[in-house]
Amino acid sequence: MDRNMDGGGDADGETMRDDDPFARLGPVFAGRRALLLEDDPALSDHVAERLTAAGFEAVDRFETGEAALEAAARAPYDVLILDRLTAGMDGLEMLKRLRAGGGTSADAPALMLTALGGERQKVEGLLGGADDYLAKPVGDEELVARIAAQLRRAS
């Protein structure tokens, strides 16, 4: 089943179900908190729903880099999921400032989830502090698997 991060389910309208093998990642995600910087409300809802279904305790969503930076500096997050195309401070700049300035989430794994998918943009993201980089659209299963891999490495 190919579910895409395009704001909806797959072509058949399916969504992540309890019998989905990725739902078994619940113990990996139990008690975990994610910060999501995404200014598209439909996509933000979609990603948050998928992560919650996979077992995340909380997914805090932000539309601006400034708000995400303030939250990440104050609250501990287990993973940061950041868009590069947001108004004002984008996800890459937010991450650079968070890494440089410290705070409770400064060392959290960061995954860029963005429409900017060129090789140069990916390299900029990785060199700018991201631990992984995914170009939209991406399947739900790949996103969840990559987040699980980041959390495994951070543990």
Count of individual domains: 1
Tell me the β content. Answer: 5-15%
CATH class: Alpha Beta
Shape: globular
Which whole number gives the mean pLDDT?
Answer: 88
H and E order: HEHEHEHEHEH
CATH superfamily: Response regulator
Describe the biggest sheet? 5 strands, parallel
Q: Enumerate the spans where pLDDT stays under 50 for 5 or more consecutive residues.
A: 5-14
Helix content: 40-55%
How many β-strand stretches? Answer: 5
- Class by helix and strand content? alpha/beta
Euclidean distance between termini CA atoms? 29 Å
CATH architecture assignment name = 3-Layer(aba) Sandwich
- Tell me the number of helical segments per DSSP (H or I, 4 or more residues long): 6
Description:
Helices cover 41% and strands 15% of the residues. It has 155 residues and is α/β, with parallel strands linked by helices. The chain has a single domain (21-154), classed as Rossmann fold. The chain has a five-stranded parallel sheet with strand order 2-1-3-4-5, sandwiched between helices. Helix 3 (65-74) packs parallel to helix 4. The protein is globular. Residues 5-14 have low confidence and may be disordered.
Element layout with pairings:
Layout: H1 26-29, E1 33-37, H2 41-54, E2 58-62, H3 65-74, E3 79-82, H4 91-101, E4 110-114, H5 119-127, E5 132-135, H6 140-154
Key terms for this structure?
about 40% helix; about 160 residues; Rossmann fold; about 15% strand; alpha/beta; 6 helices
